[in-house]
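Changelog-adjacent note: as of this version, every example in the card shows the full chain rather than a window. The one below runs 180 residues end to end.
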Amino acid sequence: MKSSIKLLTTIFALALVLVSCKDENSIQTYFVDHQELPEFLSLDVAANVIDFSNANLSKEEQEAYQSVRKLDVLAYKLSESNKGTYQQELDKAKAVFANNKYEELMEFKDKELNVKINAVGTGDTVDEFIILASSNDIGFTIVRVLGDDMRLEELLKLTDKMQNADVDKGQLKNLMEMFK
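Full-length structure tokens:
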């Protein structure tokens, strides 16, 4: 009898610890909680969605490209039927970005598009970037870039090479159609 009470007490304590350790404002929790909801589109995109073989990358640019493993995308398209919940969902997403776990790297506005980029990492290298792009006209998208020892400044240099790269539009088809 005493051993079963000890076992139940131990299990209860372990469950309590596991539940209390859940970070409600983590990007992972946000993705899991929202990816199956009908108003959201969720995509896992392999890093090789962009083929830079025709872009003549330098060694540093090639290393930057290879440091990215995958992208997780979660998009919410604004429509007449969900205008009431749009701001609530955007506020939840912004709360994740306000988590102290994520270091804010930059925030800017381009016309009607607001963009915020945060990161998880140490020093000059980062293992995760999270990007929130929102517009009160079309909705918002969160992109989670996962990799190993990524360097933002090197990844930004790759954007110039995008014009010479081939993009596998098949993997991004649903996202492009959603925001037409």
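Structural remarks: The mean pLDDT is 79.
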